[in-house]
Each structure stands twice: as C-alpha cells, then as structure tokens.
Amino acid sequence: MASDPTAGDAPAEMPVESAEDLDIRQPADLERQIEQLKAENADLQDKHLRAMAEAQNVRRRAQQDIEKERKFGIERFARDVLSVADNLGRALSAVPVEESLDPGLRNVITGVRATERELQSVLERHGVTRIEALGKPFNAEFHQAMMEVEDPSVPSGTVVQELIPGYLLAGRLLRAAMVSVSKGGPARTAEASNER
Question: How crowded is residue 126: how many other Cβ atoms within 10 Å of its Cβ?
C-alpha cells in the first residue's frame, strides 16, 4: 500500500477560524493605530534629536574644559611662583648704589638680576604677563588701590607708585597690582581715562 505524501504529523485539513480569531479590524481602528504609531514615531525622533544635541553639548563642554585646564591649569603654581619674583624684586630694591659695593657683591647682584629676568621670561613663556601700572589711569579690574597720594602735578586717579606688581594669566587676572593713586591733581580727560 502506497503511503500518502500528505499524510504525516500535520492534519490534512486546517480548521476554518472565526472572524474574531482572524483579528480583522475595521478601517477606523486601523487609522487610529496608524495615528498612534505616527505619534510614537514623532516622539521617538524628538527624543533621538534631543539626545544627539545633549551628547554634542557634552562633547563641546568637555572640549572647553580641556582647553580651560590647558590654559589655566598652572594658575595655582603661577601664584606661588609670583612670591619668588616679588622677593627677588624686593632684594634688588634694597641693594645700595652699586658703585659703593665691592666687586664680589656686585657680581652677586648681577646674578640676582639675571635670575629675576630669567624668571620673568619663563613666566611670560607660560602666559603669565606683568600688568603695567605705573603712570596709567587707575583701573579697578587690574589695580588695587592701597593708598592715595596728594600730587597736584599728576592727573587725579593716576597710578603713581606700584607697591606689588600685578599679573595676568592668558589675559585673565592672576593678581591685581597693589598701587598708590594720585588725588588732588587736574581731572583726567575722557581719552586718558579709557587707557588700560
């Protein structure tokens, strides 16, 4: 007896399903589902765009932080080194007139001056620049007034003495110059007041 090729584990006939089992939907139901899927799609696209924008902002902020750290990472060290520069300057200003000194001491003073120049050069190479204050109009952004001096020969508000020099690090204030400011002299002109 020949075997039937259609015979096997599966039944020969499939039962007919009812309309409820086929999940036949009405056109209104399909349109409502399409609108719901479109809304979900729009929401997901919006979330995706926001996530991409946020990731880009995080990358940009990280790059700015790296650049800021590269520029200003030596700030604390530079402030500490400024006290060394101040002490070298004080030592040189306390030295009496060189002509009255013996040659050995003159050589020491020459060496200290060379050391001070080299220190200033190193600071400048790393973005630390000295604020020129003497003879300039007082600027509260860069100068700290320690005292006022009566001097009618100098326009009022002019820096007449620099007690401690000020410094900038990559254009940002590292330390304000401590200065004496004139008072009682003629008023500054508008053009002279705009100088730094």
Answer: 13
